[in-house]
Amino acid sequence: MKQSWSVVVFCFNEAGTIKELVDRIVDFFETHRKGLYDIIIVDDGSTDGSHEMIREAAQKHEETVRIIRHEKNRGIGEALRDGYTAARNENVTAVPADGQFDIEELLPYLDIEPDTFISFYRRENIEYSSFRSTLSAVNKYINKVFNGIELKDVNWVKIYKREAITAFPWKLHSSLIESEICAKLLLMHNRAIQVLSYYHPRKAGTSKGASLRIIAQALRETPKLLFVVHTFRRSMKA
After folding, report:
1. Alpha carbon separation from 97 to 72, 137, 180 (Å, rounded)
2. Which domain holds residue 122?
3. Neighbours of 51 (CB within 10 A)
4. Does the pLDDT of residue 138 top 80, yes or no?
């Protein structure tokens, strides 16, 4: 039996790409999973007209698109939490509204075995500044040494089983929630399949991931991530 899908699109000020991206997602799933998918757009407090674009996309695809609106920008972690919570179907993925992930890359992985998740990774990210690249390298080191996550790119697109990621509470609220989820899945003996992904150049807008507020939020939650994963590991051994 074909597996069903929930696609979370997290958006903050991406008026130049959001409508085109939603159309591409709809076209893809209408071709490959017609009647077995929904799209959840989390508008994280956009101020550039993105919300109007999102409402138009939802009206155009009213049978498949749902909207979650944050009145103020709360960051990628909160956007992911709300999107994952709203997911209804067997498989769930979250993609950025900037269009830098090609939805066609999902095609070989539309049906996934139990106890498995897909982790896409970028071979290189030429758009990252040296500062942001350094932060990513530090995050990768911490995940590997302290959290047992040996993934090439924990911050890029994943495909999860909804049942698997809702089997435990999420404690983090920053972008580190992906590290928390991956660490817990691996501790529960889920298999990670890593897949090379092409990081497409932006067609519009600017990157938001390197804002000082987002970086500060992640830095504040790093000790909490270590504690949460350590506590979960101990509970699995009890």
Report:
1. 17, 24, 23
2. 5-237
3. 19
4. no
pLDDT band at 193 (very low <50, low <70, confident <90, very high): very high
Type of residue found at 38: D
Residue 40, token pair as written in the block: 């959840």
Q: What is the 3-state secondary structure (H, E, C) of 36-54?
A: CEEEEEEEECCCCCHHHHH
Distance CA 73, CA 176 (A): 17
Characterize 83-102 residue by residue with b for buried, 16 or more Cβ atoms within 10 angstroms of its Cβ, and e for exposed. Answer: bbebbeebbbbbbbbbbbbb
Domains: count for the chain: 1
Helix (H) or strand (E) holding 23: helix 18-32
CATH number of the structural domain spanning residue 136: 3.90.550.10
Q: For tokens 């007209």, what's the residue?
A: 49
C-alpha span between 225 and 179 (Å, rounded): 8
Q: What is the mean pLDDT of residues 157-174?
A: 97
Report the distance separating Cα 192 and Cα 190, nearest Å. 7
**Through-space distance between the first and last CA atoms of the chain, rounded to whole angstroms:** 37
> Distances in Å between the alpha carbon of 168 and those of 34, 162, 165, 221, 236?
30, 11, 7, 18, 12
User: In which residue are the tokens 């075995």 written?
Assistant: 113
Q: What is the DSSP string of 156-192?
A: S-EEEEHHHHTSS-----STTHHHHHHHHHHHTTPEE
Q: What is the pTM of this model?
A: 0.91
Across 131-153, average pLDDT: 73
